[in-house]
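One such shown below:

_____
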Amino acid sequence: MSKSLLLTTLLLATSSTAATKPEFAFVPDAKTAIAIAQAVLVPIYGADTIRREQPFSAKLVAGVWVVTGTEDCGDPSVHRCPGGVAEAHIAKKDGRIIAAFHGK
């Protein structure tokens, strides 16, 4: 087989399979987003703070995972705790950390 025929065959095979693959994302699901967020938030706010805000939840909004901690005031009747919770925004497609902060 000639080099040009081999190259053409490889190009055709690659282009035809690429169209059938789903869009690739570095952060494909909520579990992955939460793991990344915790890895970013612990060095900033400390392991104890992040542990107290478990469980974390993640919601996909316009291609960005919004990961937030859970408020725990120690009293189920209290709906807003002083200090807020940690939050991270992570791009689904490439895993960029768009924002990391803690509510007040």
Summary: The radius of gyration is 21 Å. Residues 24-102 form one domain. The chain has one domain: 24-102. Strands lie at 57-61, 64-68, 86-91, 97-102.
